[in-house]
Structure formats: C-alpha cells, structure tokens
Amino acid sequence: MEPTVPMKDYVDSRDDAVEARIAAKLDKLPTKATVWGAVASGVGTLLALLAFAGDRFDGGVALSPSISKMKDEQQERDRQQDAKLVGIDKKLDVLIEQSKVK
User: Fold this and answer.
1) Distance in angstroms (rounded) separating the CA atoms of residues 32 and 40
2) Alpha-carbon gap, residue 44 to 9, rounded angstroms
3) SS in 3 state form for 24-73?
4) How far is CA 15 from the centre of its chain?
C-alpha cells in the first residue's frame, strides 16, 4: 500500500519545484541582452507608430486637392445663385414701382 499525500501538498510541492527551476534559469540570463532587447523593442514600436501616423497624414494631404476643387465649385454655385437673387430683386423692385403708380 502506497502512502497517500494530500492533493494540496502535492500541488504545492510541484509549484515550488517549478518556481525553483524558473528562478535558476532566469538567474543565468544575461541582463545586458535583456536591456538591449527592451530598447530595441521600444525603438521598433516607435518607428511602427511613426510609419502608421505618416500613412494617415499622407491620406489627408492627398484629399487636399479634391477638397479645394469642391470648395471652388461651391463658390461658383454661390456666385450663380447670387446673380439670380439680384435679378429677382430687380424684378421685385419693378413690380413694387408698378403697383405704386396705380
């Protein structure tokens, strides 16, 4: 008959063994390489962010000519409408004058 170990004690001992192995392996890692790896990751992230932002900026610049064209077209429509309104205003003035004579 084998002696029984409570499940909690068995799991705790396995966890302690795993933690000890991980700690031993981490102590062997050179910290200099880890620091340079972190710096390289930071620089890479910054460059990726700038590349993404640059792409978004170029998209906005590319829209500028079409927005300028739409603005010019709207100004031309406004000028035409203003000319029509001036013509209608003159006709109204004529009608008002004609109604006063009678």
Assistant:
1) 12
2) 45
3) HHHHHCCHHHHHHHHHHHHHHHHHHHHHHHHHHHHHHHHHHHHHHHHHHH
4) 43
Which uninterrupted H or E stretch holds 88? helix 31-101
Task: List, for residues 32-79, the tens digit of each pLDDT value.
Answer: 667 788 888 999 999 888 877 766 666 666 677 788 889 999 999 999
- Of 33-37, 70-74, 85-89, 96-100, least confident by mean pLDDT is 33-37
**What phi, psi does 76 have (nearest 5°)?**
-65, -45
Work out the number of other CB atoms within 10 angstroms of the CB of residue 41. 10
Taking the C-alpha atoms of residue 22 and residue 20, their distance in angstroms, rounded to an integer, is 6
